[in-house]
Amino acid sequence: MAIRILLVLFVLLVFASASPARTSASAYQLTAVGSLNTTGATFRHLWYTNGTLTFSGIAPAGETVTATIDGSAATAVADASGNWSHPVSLSEGDHTVVFAAGGSNFADFTLTIGPAPEGIGELKTSDTPTAGAVAPTLAFLSLGFLLTTSGLFLHRRLA
């Protein structure tokens, strides 16, 4: 009976890891807004002095990233190295910026073109947490440990 349970768990694990699931949101990142490095940063509002800038990021090779700025959408395709860029020219003022790919938004913020208010400093990535989820990795590691331990236990018991 225990061997059947282990076999079913193994088959479920194989199908779960081999199924074409959608790419996780952490595979898509906005890495730069103009000359500002945003890799791993979490933010809701950025200030930039020049309205002519390029948004850059990473995505799986060949994936399409949709940039929506003030309701107007445009796309960029990641090259063979997984890099994408989207140049824009924006007027002074606030702009709603959303980047989406893989079925979900991965960056959503307000970009203000113009001088930053007094007291607003530069974005320091050392002060912000990195993006990404570790839960799926921990779940697979735990399941692998459970299957290995169960297999060793049953092997000793049946031997």
Outline the secondary-structure elements.
Blueprint: H1 2-18, E1 29-33, E2 36-37, E3 45-48, E4 52-58, E5 64-69, E6 72-77, E7 83-89, E8 93-101, E9 104-113, H2 135-158
Parallel strand pairs: 3-9
Antiparallel strand pairs: 1-2, 1-4, 4-7, 5-6, 5-8, 8-9
* CA gyration radius, whole angstroms: 22 Å
State the CATH architecture of the domain at 23-131. Sandwich
Apparent shape: elongated
Largest sheet data:
5 strands, mixed
The largest beta-sheet arranges its strands as 3-9-8-5-6
At the first level of CATH, the class of the domain at 23-131 is Mainly Beta
Termini gap: 16 Å
Tell me the number of helical segments per DSSP (H or I, 4 or more residues long). Answer: 2
What keywords describe this structure?
159 residues, five-stranded mixed β-sheet, 9 strands, elongated, 35% strand, Immunoglobulin-like, four-stranded antiparallel β-sheet, alpha+beta
